[in-house]
Design a protein that fits this description.
2 domains, Jelly Rolls, alpha+beta, ten-stranded mixed beta sheet
Length: 672
């Protein structure tokens, strides 16, 4: 771990002497998150009458790969009034999915059917339900936008693109064994791009698009530099999959991973019913499913339930820790050469990776773009396409492909390049994230009451100097995390249905947590990047689990989670080579190693320091608002330690030690 310099200088964060009231941007001249006149023109194109009146579909087109495996693709082509596809070759927009083309087919039917299309298009304008049902509005409002990115986008097809949607190997109607974003699947994508470029309906120019898994798949393929690939439009992609969701802080995302694996494995068993009715049963498809009936589910169940590491099989261990399995699934970001657009959310399950993907791609800003909203994985974020917000995602996607697949100079490369919704503020554009000029201010956790969190297990204070007499605070695991923003993040957004009293106010969850709240800021203060919380801990068991959040506390007491982090105590080893530091030598961002070899069991009763970094974020504390750090001993259903670690912790209470000699503190990234 990196050496720390304990500075006693008085910082003025709590009185906001460091202010970001006027932030200097060195981005494009427009500096307008809406895109200005150009953005309006992109939306006008989407809203305008289509160039071609119909869509012609060729179902389940076979694609034979280099190893003989056959994938199945649906090909959507622009067509005339009689339904005949146009003769002119077009650019191709390609997506590969594990969720079976059947879902995208059903979505496309709904969007094409005149009875259902208006319903889909108007999902974003459903009534605004009040609490406790306001989560329905939050979940449904962005559904139409996300749906267009997930499957067929008829606007693209009817305006001169061919869209191809392919089942990845081992899923849908494709043959083979599901490789779950592995090397063979990555090679498949490269081969499918080459195949698409050579078809008679293609003009040789190919772009890729998709959400979540499909976005990861295309980022991986772009890193392999397929010759025919010209552009990428990735919505909610991940890259560091272990730290993103599988083992965040060394704990499994139980709110997402089991359900997600069960969903994909269930969908891959749905047969081609049309072929069955026609007597064309695909025996090879069935043989492949029998060989691999439930990909990775047994391994996940094993690592969640095993009482000790020695009893876990090698196959299960590889999905539970960093190593070759995850390195093979990391995209070669530094090799990407094509224009790439990334859309993410601060509370997405892949919020850790989305800014990193943008930052590491070595193409000029403008040819790469990043948009970060305030939604969750299944809740893209409300407001797109309305005044003061970015254009609708369909408009951004259309403009991106028009620019890079059709060479239309429409100004999309002058957008952003970094467009952010500042939590607690408005949409802004800048040239980079995190901000270029950051002061890392250190605030210490004090047991002294702030007077703002009487509802919490403990109401503490954030102070500018470590003057604390020795004090021990105790916190125990609990289940209130089910009603929290962490739950909404860990369930990909589904928990927003519990309502804003859970997801927009942490006070229910704080009843079983330790809170530490600063003084109100006097001026608008911008925070940019990850926070790192250093905790001096004592356990009564060989292991434990800690979860932290950084919150914006409004004058009326509402406590809104800005960002979160977590760590299994025995996995506290930090990789300094992959971490960043403040000018004082503290961690600005601490990267845990997350291997079983690096485990350091806790000595019960002995004080142990932990460094927990949160997800990166951009936020604004408005005048009168306060910064708060919450500390918990659990985060269910966001995360649950692996079986061996959970068994060793025994779900016992955990202790936080506060003292001037070995203080607990948070490093706060304040934009100048």
């Amino acid at each position: 771990m990196g050496a720390r310099v304990r500075s006693r200088r008085t910082v003025a964060f709590v009185v906001a002497a460091v202010v970001a009231c006027t932030v200097a941007f060195s981005g494009p001249a427009t500096a307008d998150p809406t895109g200005g006149d150009a953005g309006a023109s992109w939306q006008d194109l989407v809203d305008a009458p289509d160039t071609y009146p119909n869509t012609a579909v060729e179902w389940d087109v076979p694609i034979t790969l280099s190893d003989g495996t056959v994938l199945r693709a649906n090909v959507f082509r622009p067509a005339g009034a009689d339904g005949t596809p146009i003769e002119e070759p077009t650019p191709v927009v390609l997506g590969l999915t594990p969720y079976t083309k059947l879902l995208s087919t059903l979505a496309s039917v709904a969007m094409e059917d005149p009875q259902f299309a208006p319903i889909v298009d108007e999902l974003g304008s459903i009534p605004n339900f009040g609490a406790p049902f306001d989560g329905i509005t939050e979940l449904a409002a962005p559904a139409a936008q996300l749906g267009r990115m997930f499957g067929l986008n008829r606007d693209l097809v009817r305006n001169g693109y061919t869209q191809v949607i392919v089942d990845v190997r081992g899923t849908g109607f494709s043959h083979g064994k599901w490789d779950v974003l592995g090397p063979r699947e990555q090679q498949d994508t490269v081969e499918v791009i080459d195949w698409a470029a050579k078809q008679e309906w293609s003009n040789g120019r190919v772009g890729t698009t998709g959400v979540s898994y499909s976005a990861i798949n295309q980022i991986q393929a772009a890193g392999l530099r397929p010759a025919a690939l010209d552009a990428v439009f990735a919505v909610e992609p991940g890259n560091d999959l272990l730290r993103d969701i599988v083992g965040t802080g060394g704990a499994v995302g139980v709110g997402f991973m089991p359900a997600w694996l069960a969903l994909v494995n269930g969908l891959k068993w749905i047969p081609d019913m049309e072929a069955l009715f026609q007597g064309r049963f695909d025996a090879q498809w069935l043989r492949d499913r029998l060989v691999d009936p439930a990909t990775k589910l047994p391994e996940l169940f094993e690592v969640l339930t095993a009482p000790n590491v020695d009893g876990v099989s090698p196959g299960a261990l590889e999905v539970a820790q960093d190593g070759p399995f995850y390195r093979q699934r990391e995209a070669r970001l530094e090799s990407i050469e094509v224009p790439t657009f990334v859309i993410g959310n601060w509370h997405d399950i892949f919020a850790n990776s989305e800014p990193d993907i943008y930052n590491r791609i070595p193409v000029d800003p403008g040819r790469k773009q990043l948009v970060m909203g305030d939604g969750y994985h299944a809740v893209l974020g409300a407001g797109f396409g309305t005044p003061g917000h970015p254009p609708a995602t369909a408009a951004l996607q259309r403009a991106w492909f028009d620019r890079w697949l059709k060479d239309i100079d429409n100004g999309i490369d002058d957008y952003g390049p970094v467009t952010l919704l500042q939590q607690g503020g408005e949409w802004v554009t800048t040239d980079r994230f995190p901000r270029r000029d950051i002061d890392h201010e250190k605030l210490y956790l004090s047991a002294a009451p702030s007077g703002t969190a009487g509802h919490a297990l403990h109401d503490g204070t954030l102070v500018t100097s470590a003057m604390e007499a020795p004090h021990r605070l105790t916190v125990a695991p609990g289940l209130r995390g089910v009603c929290s923003r962490q739950a909404a993040q860990g369930t990909a957004g589904i928990a927003v249905l519990l309502g804003s009293a859970c997801t927009r106010d942490a006070r229910v969850n704080e009843a079983e947590g330790l809170t530490f709240t600063g003084a109100p800021v006097s001026e608008r203060t911008v925070l940019s990047g990850p926070f790192t919380v250093h905790l001096e801990t004592v356990l009564d068991a060989p292991d434990g689990f800690w979860s932290v959040s950084v919150n914006d506390v409004a004058p009326d007491g509402r406590s809104t989670v800005l960002t979160t982090g977590s760590l299994v105590s025995s996995l506290r080893a930090i990789d300094d080579a992959k971490s960043t530091f403040t000018a004082e030598g503290d961690y600005a961002r601490a990267q845990p190693v997350l291997t079983l070899e690096s485990r350091q069991p806790i000595v019960p009763g002995q004080r142990t320091g932990l460094d927990i970094s949160t997800l990166p974020t951009e936020a604004v504390l408005q005048p009168g608002h306060r910064l708060r750090v919450d500390v918990y001993a659990s985060s269910v259903p966001r995360s649950l330690p692996l079986g061996p670690m959970l068994h060793e912790s025994g779900l016992r209470p955990q202790h936080l030690e506060l003292s001037a000699s070995s203080p607990s503190f948070v490093t706060v990234p304040v934009a100048r």
